[in-house]
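Following up on my earlier message about zinc ion. Here are the inputs again, as you asked, copied directly from the submission form:
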Amino acid sequence: MTDRTSVLDVLARMSSLQWGRWGGFDAIRQAQASRLHDLVRYAREHSRYYAERYAGLPDGVALEALPVVTKHELNGRFDDWVTDPDVTRERLSAFLADRTQIGERFLGRHAAWRSSGTTGEPGLYLHDAPACATYHALIASVMQRPDVAAAWAFGQVANGGRRALVAATGEHFAGIVTWRSLAQWAPQATTCELSVLRPVDEWVERLDAFRPAFLAGYPTALRLLAHEQRARRLSIAPSIVWSGGEHLTAAARREIEAAFGAVLIDEYGSSECLSIAVGCNHGWLHLNADWVVLEPVDARYRPVPPGTLSHTALLTNLANRVQPVIRYDLGDRVVFRPDACECGSPLPALRVQGRCDDVVTLRRRDGARVPLLPMALTTAVEEGADLHLFQIVRVSDRELAIRVPEGPARARRSSWEAARSALARCSPRTGSTTSRSRSTRRRRRCPRRAASCTRWFRPRPCRGAARSRERPAERHALRPERLRCARTCPVRVVAVEPSR
Ligand SMILES: [Zn+2]
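Thanks, got it. Here's what our run produced:
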C-alpha cells in the first residue's frame, strides 16, 4: 500500500474542521467562499479546459455565473481537464485496468477510481492527497457525536475494533479504494472484505466467524444482513453500522437499526466527492458545506428554493485540485430543509432522492425466495460485458429482463451475448435461498453448467424496473431483451434473443 495520506494530515484537517464549525453557519459560509475563490482561480490557471470555459469571466465572479459542466463534456476533454501535466487518460486507464493495484496511488500520489456509470458513461476520477485527507477528516468528524464516540469505544473493547465491508471489491471503485487506503492504518487481521458477488450465505458464515465491531456496506446489502440477523442465521453485534453508496430509506434504517441495535451512520458521497453529507439521528443528511457546494436546480439549471425537490444538483468539490469539479451536474435529485434540524447542526440539512435500489427477489419453483442484490447484478454486467447503459427489470417472480441501447443489430447482439454470458457466470453467486440447507440442496441437485440451461425467448413488455441505469431523457433509447431464470436454478438467468 502506498497511500501517502498521513495520519497527521488527517488529524490536522479534523482539528481545522472542528475549529471552523464551532464558529457556526457564518464561519462555515466564510470558509466555503474563500475555498471556492481559491479553487476557481487554481482551475483557470492550471486546467486548459476551465481556462477556456472561464475565458472572459472576471476574477472573483460569483459561483452562479460560472457555466455548468457535465460528465460527458469533462470525460471528452479529460487530458485538458486535469491539472497534473503527468496525467493522461491513457495512463490512468492502463492503471485502472490492473485490478491488482486497487487501493494503490496512481503515479504514487493520486487516489484513483472509476465510477460504475450510473448515467451509462463510466468516469475516471483522481483525488490528490490533500483531498483524501479532507475526506477522511470529514468521515471521522462523526466521532464528535457522543453516541458514535461511545459506540466506537465499546466496539474497540468488545470486538477488538474489527471492521468488515460488503461492497463491489473487484474493481477500482471509490468504496473499496478508500477502504483499503484506510485499512493500511489497521492490522490486517482486523479488517474483512466481502464481495457483493458472493452469496449471502457466505457473508453470514464469514461475519459470524469474524464478529465485526464496525460493519459497512450498501443499504441493500445491510438490509439483507439485517434479515439474516432477525432470522437468527446471523449473530453479530456491531456497535457501528455505516451505510453508503445508495439511498438509505427510512424503512431500511429502521430495519437495520432494529436488527443490530447499533449506531447507524448514513453517508452521502459520489465518485466526484467522497463525502458530500453525513446523516444525523433525525434522518437528515447534513451537507459538508465547508468543503462542498451543492446547488439544487431545475431542468434548466435555475435554483429551486428549500423544501422543493430539485431536478438535479450541481456539485462543487472544494477539496480536490487535480481534477477540479465546479458546478458539475451530479444527476441526483435533492431537497433542502427550509428550517433548522432538531439535531442542532449548523450544516444545511437535505434529503436525496436517487440511487435508491431495492433488493430483487425471485422465487424458485418450490416457492423459496431468492434475494438478488442489484449491485451484484449490475456489477456483473458492467465488469463482465463492459456494458454501462442498461436497465434491469423484474418482469415476474421468475424472470428478469435487461434493456440495452438501440443500435445496429450486430452490436446489440454482441452486447446481449456478453450480458448473458456475464450473468450466467455470476448467477450462481449472486443470490442465495433464505436457508442455508436449501442452498446446499440446490447446489447438489443442479450440477449442470449455466450454459446448458440457456433458453431463448422473445421480448415482451416489461412491467417493473428493478434499477434504472440511465437518465429519464435517455430511456426511449432502450429496448428490452428478456432474461429468464432456468427452472432448477432461479438465480441462473438467460437472455432473450434480440428481435433484430
Ligand atoms: Zn440533523
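One observation from looking it over: The radius of gyration is 23 Å. Hope that helps, and feel free to reply on this thread.
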